[in-house]
TrEMBL record:
<keyword id="KW-0234">DNA repair</keyword>
<dbReference type="GO" id="GO:0070552">
    <property type="term" value="C:BRISC complex"/>
</dbReference>
<dbReference type="GO" id="GO:0070531">
    <property type="term" value="C:BRCA1-A complex"/>
</dbReference>
<protein>
    <recommendedName>
        <fullName>BRISC and BRCA1-A complex member 1</fullName>
    </recommendedName>
</protein>
<keyword id="KW-0227">DNA damage</keyword>
<dbReference type="GO" id="GO:0045739">
    <property type="term" value="P:positive regulation of DNA repair"/>
</dbReference>
<dbReference type="GO" id="GO:0007095">
    <property type="term" value="P:mitotic G2 DNA damage checkpoint signaling"/>
</dbReference>
<dbReference type="GO" id="GO:0016604">
    <property type="term" value="C:nuclear body"/>
</dbReference>
<dbReference type="InterPro" id="IPR026126">
    <property type="entry name" value="BABAM1"/>
</dbReference>
<dbReference type="GO" id="GO:0006302">
    <property type="term" value="P:double-strand break repair"/>
</dbReference>
<keyword id="KW-0963">Cytoplasm</keyword>
<keyword id="KW-0539">Nucleus</keyword>
Amino acid sequence: MESSDLLNSFDSQETQELEKCNSKNALDNEYAELREQVMANFQKPNLPNVNVPEKIIICLDLCYDDQNSLFRLGDGTTYTPINMLKRVLEFFIYSKYSINKRTEFALIAMQDDSTCFVQNFTNNLKDILNAIDYVNAEESKSETFDFQKVFQIIKREVEIPPYKQSECIIPPPYVVRMIVLYARSNCLPVIAQDDSYINFLKKQFYFYIDILLAHEEDCALYKCAEVYDALQDLDNGYSYVFEVSKNAAKIHDCIAKLLAHPLQRPLQKNTDYTFSSKF
C-alpha cells in the first residue's frame, strides 16, 4: 500500500472515530436534558392529572401607552391593543369552553387608578363575552400599578380548594387560574412580596397565575424589560409567562398555549410545541 493510501486510511478512521464520539456526546447531552426535565417534573407536587373544571379569572388591562400603536393582521386589518386582547380572549374562551363546558370565567378590569370586578364566575359565554365587550380602553397615566387591588378582590370573591397531602390522588372539585393580560409598557407592576395573602396564594397547589404581556415595539423608549421583570414576581414556579410586542400572529400563538390545563401541563421550561416524526 502506498503512503498516500495509508494516510487516507488513517484519516478515514479518525473521521469515523470522531463521528462516533460526536454522536455519543449528542446522545449523552440529550439524555442529560431529558433526565433534567423528568427530575423537574418529579419535583412538582403530587397532584391528580385530571381535567377538572377550571374557574378562570381574566385580569384584563384596559390601559394603553400609545393609541396609535396597532396590531396588524396579514390582510392589513388593524386592531388597537384593547381590541386585540378582546379578540384573543374570545378565541380562548370559545376554545376552552369546547374542551370542558364546566369551565367558568370571571372578569377583573385593571384601570389606571382602580380595579373592578366586572363579572362573577359564569359558564354562560354570552355573559362573559358581553362583559369583555363592555369595558373600554383608557390612557395610562400612572407610573405604577399595585396588584394588591387585584388580590383583594380575589380574597373577597374566590374560594380556593384546599390541598390535603393525605388526599392528593383525589381530584379537587375545580382549580382556580388567574390569567393576567397586561398591556402597559411604562407602568411598573407592584407585587408586594411581604403581603401575607399573596404569599398564601403562591402556596396553594390549586391556584395558578399565568401572564401575557403585550408591550410596545420600541423597548428603548419604554420600560418593557422592567415591566416584564416585575411581573415575574407573580410566578410561584408553575406559571406560564409570555411576552409579545405588536405581533398579531404571536399573540394568538401565546393565548393558544394557555389553553393547556394546569394539572395536565408540564413546567413551561419543559414544553415542546414542535412536531416530529420517527420516519
